[in-house]
């Protein structure tokens, strides 16, 4: 029996049939006739000199040889597809696919995209707004912007692009009603649950401790996404512990104000992540430079605040 590999088309036919356990469904996936698919599998069995399927009345099942081949065939085509996508991305200088969280995309990235588009008209920018962790070898993504605690990840280039800090934010009308931090004891508070799993916590109880005030806990309206909590605050629905990364535009345009002098910092950062080596691709480098330039203006909002690290007031 020869170790020479059989034709790729025959292996592709087998992989599809093994996944579907149906020749007709496999043929439909590959856009061939069932007869053509059956011929490919028959040629593979002749190459192996053993059957891969048992043909039953209205179904098929794998033989021992088929069960031995199926996992490797599936893994092989998955790896081959990933390698092909990576090769295509490496030579493509006209498109850039970025993934970031929905709130960050809506409140920070989207309003700035015209600036990048004007500076780089030859780059087509595509976004995937999701909190799902993307796999650069499987998903068609070039760059991820992720919020979390810095950590080294093998095979990835990672750079901090933005610090995060929080302080109470509200409409100017509500700020007139609650001029002092102690007034928040009677104010409607808005809560955001998208960072609930972060330790140490950067939430309302942590901010009250940082301000030297008795903590208020779960009372108030809760939102699963931080941008929804900000929208509620803009509508006058309450006071939000606003994240500067998401609220900068609303502060700049006067929809929200941050009247108090205590800010809460967190060691969680926004990071730019891509496969190691990809940071040198022209469109990836251009996007990283763009992000770093856009974050410079955030420093202006820090100058009047006194900051406390969330780790120092952890419960």
Structure overview:
- The strands form three sheets. A six-stranded mixed β-sheet has the order 9-8-10-7-11-13, with helices on both faces. The protein has a five-stranded mixed β-sheet with strand order 4-3-5-12-6. A two-stranded antiparallel ribbon has the order 1-2.
- The protein has eleven helices and 13 strands.
- Helix 5 (102-109) packs parallel to helix 10.
- With 315 residues, it is an alpha/beta fold.
- The mean pLDDT is 90.
- The radius of gyration is 27 Å and the shape is elongated.
What's this entry about, in short?
39% of the residues lie in helices and 20% in strands.
Could you name the ranges where pLDDT drops below 50 across 5 or more consecutive residues? Answer: none
Q: How many helical elements?
A: 11
Structural Rg: 27 Å
- Give a quick account of the main beta sheet: strands, pairing sense, barrel closure: 6 strands, mixed
Q: Hey, roughly how much beta strand do the residues contain?
A: 15-25%
Taken in chain order, the helices and strands follow as HHHEEHEHHEEEEHEHEHEHEEHE
Average pLDDT for all residues:
90
Helix proportion range: 25-40%
Distance between the termini: 68 Å
Could you give the order of strands across the largest sheet? 9-8-10-7-11-13
Oligomer: single chain
Structure summary, number of beta strands: 13
The computed structural class is alpha/beta
Overall body shape: elongated
Sum up the structure in keywords:
5-stranded mixed beta sheet, 6-stranded mixed beta sheet, alpha/beta, 315 residues, 11 helices
List the helices and strands and how they pair.
Layout: H1 8-20, H2 23-30, H3 34-48, E1 53-55, E2 60-62, H4 64-91, E3 95-100, H5 102-109, H6 113-119, E4 124-129, E5 143-148, E6 156-162, E7 165-169, H7 172-177, E8 189-192, H8 204-210, E9 221-223, H9 226-234, E10 239-243, H10 244-252, E11 262-265, E12 269-275, H11 282-294, E13 306-309
Helix pairs in contact: 1-2, 1-3, 1-4, 2-3, 5-10
């Amino acid at each position: 029996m020869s170790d020479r590999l059989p034709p790729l088309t025959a292996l592709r036919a087998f992989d599809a049939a093994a996944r579907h356990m149906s020749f007709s469904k496999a043929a439909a996936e590959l856009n061939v006739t069932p007869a053509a698919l059956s011929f490919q599998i028959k040629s593979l069995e002749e190459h192996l000199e053993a059957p891969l399927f048992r043909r039953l009345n209205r179904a098929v099942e794998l033989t021992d040889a088929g069960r031995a081949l199926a996992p490797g065939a599936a893994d092989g085509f998955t790896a081959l597809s990933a390698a092909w996508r990576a090769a295509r991305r490496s030579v493509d200088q006209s498109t850039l696919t970025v993934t970031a969280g929905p709130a960050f995309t809506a409140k920070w990235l989207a309003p700035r995209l015209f600036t990048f588009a004007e500076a780089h008209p030859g780059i087509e920018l595509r976004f995937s707004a999701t909190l799902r962790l993307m796999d650069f070898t499987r998903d068609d993504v070039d760059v991820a912007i992720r919020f979390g605690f810095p950590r080294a990840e093998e095979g990835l280039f990672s750079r901090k692009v933005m610090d995060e800090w929080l302080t109470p934010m509200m409409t100017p009308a509500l700020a007139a009603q609650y001029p002092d931090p102690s007034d928040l004891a009677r104010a409607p508070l808005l809560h955001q649950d998208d960072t609930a799993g972060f330790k140490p916590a950067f939430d309302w109880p942590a901010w009250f401790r940082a301000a030297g005030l008795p903590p208020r806990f779960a009372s108030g309206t809760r939102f699963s996404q931080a941008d929804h909590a900000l929208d509620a605050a803009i509508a006058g629905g309450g006071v939000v512990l606003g994240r500067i990364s998401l609220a900068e535009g609303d502060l700049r345009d006067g929809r929200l104000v941050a009247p108090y002098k205590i800010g809460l910092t967190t060691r969680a950062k926004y990071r730019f992540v891509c496969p190691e080596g990809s940071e040198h691709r022209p469109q990836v480098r251009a996007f990283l430079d763009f992000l770093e330039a856009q974050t410079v203006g955030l420093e202006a909002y820090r100058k009047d605040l006194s900051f406390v690290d969330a780790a120092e007031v952890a419960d």
